[in-house]
């Protein structure tokens, strides 16, 4: 016991607030089930695999470790399965995933000689026994995230349920034979619980579903709750109740009473319709889902370096798909794998390596690229309890610590909700750039960065140039350039006939527009008319023409297809379209040349008289309402101006978040207006939703940089004009974005990666990656990795191209 007693001062008894890691090594993906088990530092409560615990001893001098080792134990073949009561896996009440059970042993190990003492043992010092008990009883940090990932959001009781008003209009709902009151639809029917109207549900993006009559009825009447007919059984909690004002599925504790009002005896009803959740799942098992995931194909599983799958942590496929493509690039491969060992990264990391992005990126890179974890999973022989055969699947690695670090500065990515792969990609590169700040030679994100130059030609014949830097080229999809217009017209006629007969069009029959990628690239460079452009040459508003080009060509070019657009009435819609993408593209013609001989720049600045006439004044109604609440008049004026007079609520929010600004009491000046810098990554996010860049910038200014509020602002201001923001106040072509040090070269690129999306919006559905590796296409579908038979090159959401050496 002497080696242990001499190191007792290094042993700590964990407090409830301490983060304890005991399920995964903090610098590798080793677990207690790995060879050699896991060693928990009894001073820092960080865990290390057998190959790495010595590094921690060398770095910290901490010598006392709790060794946790798990070995598979025999399980009776006739173990009964419990019926799940929760949409979850591996938690109490959730699905039994038939995981083998493990026997866990504990020892106290003293480094550097690995002197070992058994636990439990009465001979151990009391401090050690208390510390080990606390560690074993505590919920590990990794497990906390795992439970949260697999537990689905529970429905909440509707705020409208308890006091729902029901209209006695003599309606009695029959037990069957329902039909929409406004069309011929007999499926996807909803009963409004206020007036008893039976109406069809929403139309899906692919044309299936209902005709929106239920939602239209709510918009006309504001009757809040509806229940889906066909989902009502004796188990009322399973019924699909939707709250329109809360825009979510809800619980109605008084549903039995509300149904009885219309003569419905729920106890005798049988389930005939899928719930919304079931329908969403069913819609995913369609042509797109099968095509993108290559379902039905005999995919050859691939193992080895660079072919490691990533475990889905709960709606984390957006991250998995993106990271598989990113770590297929030379820049990230070199930075975090070839040129940086795990030991060096650990030595450079702070005391807690779990919160260091460079450490966790190195851990992820070595986990994905080394091949250590890309091995066939061991399958259990059903006839004996021995592990006897190798599976064609791999277990993959769970990137929990990486997700925790990269999401620390972004509340949405810390959640377990599905996210936009584009938004994650931009956030990821921004974080990588930050941690490599001041070291451009090390920063791998620069391999994606390039310059964009916009040229504005005034009707006076003079020009202005604006520049910015970006990581992605976001492209509109010009449907009018489709190459299969005749097929489309024939399909639309056929579809109209089937719909009129009440028939649904099967996914196999659907004909989608085919648009060449060249047309999308051409639309980026095509001239665009700017109305009400203020010309400093003419000293008046006029019409100008804007064109755009690239000032540099990056090592890796990422094309984002704007598949999500806004229809008339500001309704978001996903374009059901194929993009014909060649393996090789040449964008040399898209290079911007800057100021050309013979071009004359627009004069600098705006005359004082013009500036005064264009000055935005505070809306007096907004100001007076805020002043009546007790706010300072000057502060209220600033709030109204900085939110572009959007409304009292927007101004109030701005005011509350800027009350402590050092310049809040300074007089309003025109010079101070319009200088607020808007985060370009947030602008890119709104662009990915289908909004124009200038409107996105204006909305973010009005919403203090909040993306959600900016989206609401755009919806509430459909007539918002951006002309005032497009006035040229300077004609200097001094670059506002510095191209110095950015990679540049020829314009020929080869396609090497595709991130595809299945679902009605970027916030739901599933993401899959296809990557060209070693001369063949490989599919990365979370933890599944295989040779691709038919990569969906025409269905991508993000396309990754690598520049070809000239």
From TrEMBL:
Pfam families with a match to the protein in the record: UBA, UCH, zf-UBP, zf-UBP_var
Residues covered by the USP domain: 308-804
Family: Belongs to the peptidase C19 family.
Reaction(s) catalysed (UniProt annotation): Thiol-dependent hydrolysis of ester, thioester, amide, peptide and isopeptide bonds formed by the C-terminal Gly of ubiquitin (a 76-residue protein attached to proteins as an intracellular targeting signal)
EC number: 3.4.19.12
Matches recorded under SMART domains: UBA, ZnF_UBP
Domain UBA: 617-658, 677-717
First-level EC class: hydrolase
Protein name as it appears in the record: Ubiquitin carboxyl-terminal hydrolase
CDD domains named in the record: Peptidase_C19B, UBA1_atUBP14, UBA2_atUBP14
Keyword line: Hydrolase, Metal-binding, Protease, Repeat, Thiol protease, Ubl conjugation pathway, Zinc, Zinc-finger
Domain UBP-type positions: 156-266
Primary role: Recognizes and hydrolyzes the peptide bond at the C-terminal Gly of ubiquitin. Involved in the processing of poly-ubiquitin precursors as well as that of ubiquitinated proteins.
Stored InterPro entries: Papain-like_cys_pep_sf, Peptidase_C19_UCH, Ub_carboxyl-term_hydrolase, UBA, UBA-like_sf, Ubiquitinyl_hydrolase, UBP13_Znf-UBP_var, USP
